[in-house]
Amino acid sequence: MLKIFGKVLDFDLKDAESDENCTQTCFSDSDCILAFFNEESNYLLFFYNSTETLKVEETNRDDGFFVAFKTNLSTSDLEYCPIESEISPKIFLGEDPISWTKTSDSTWQFKKCVGNWKMFNRSNPEIIVCMQVFLTGTGTTQKEAKDYCSSMGKLVTGVATVQEPKWILSKLQGWLPEVGTFEGIWIDGERKTLETISFTWTDGYTEGYRAFESGNGWLSLNNTKGEPENCLAVSIAYGRNARINDVVCGIGTGKELGVACGYKLE
């Protein structure tokens, strides 16, 4: 635990319980990421799976407030006692290590996706997108997929890098190792012209077509019935490395198993 003089902004210890061992309590709890307490041992604990954003402000000794970060120190940190400005707290829970960011000389900020949602750091534009895959049943339609994400206040997500559909497919195969060809997951995107790669993203944060690079898209424009395939799903395509498949809007291939929901982390 990394202990400093500080307080968690927008939280008050006035009516908090007392525990003089709250730092050890946090350390022993696998989900706890931070302890905030005062000289009277009134404390609040903050937990990874229920916390999305926190701001910590450094204070003075006389203020009587303390913050203890749960973090991993590097080997080089252990070779000598680093000064506070040399330490960057980092949380190793969930899929993604998350660093506390120093937003000013006296303020640290922690931001993560809700629950165990996956974080993707995108460039051009530089944003963080949160995603999660949900199984909703064989034959899930596009409307059912949209409604499922909407019920959580989220959207069907688009994909902006090769890694994103790769991760979506890996989640599906983790649940269903024997998943078959074209048994896929709905994602955002609708073709508006006859060009092979010309999709409109409607999630409000996806841009560009880098996700289709390196042969990552299996785009046929039409199915064997001659029906236009202008929407997108992530699936296995005839054993190829391609993970993005164009499908008939609305009904897909009839084999869709779920949806990838997402949102931009503000």
From TrEMBL:
<feature type="domain" description="C-type lectin">
    <location>
        <begin position="130"/>
        <end position="249"/>
    </location>
</feature>
<dbReference type="InterPro" id="IPR016186">
    <property type="entry name" value="C-type_lectin-like/link_sf"/>
</dbReference>
<dbReference type="InterPro" id="IPR001304">
    <property type="entry name" value="C-type_lectin-like"/>
</dbReference>
<dbReference type="Pfam" id="PF08277">
    <property type="entry name" value="PAN_3"/>
</dbReference>
<protein>
    <recommendedName>
        <fullName>C-type lectin domain-containing protein</fullName>
    </recommendedName>
</protein>
<dbReference type="InterPro" id="IPR016187">
    <property type="entry name" value="CTDL_fold"/>
</dbReference>
<dbReference type="InterPro" id="IPR006583">
    <property type="entry name" value="PAN-3_domain"/>
</dbReference>
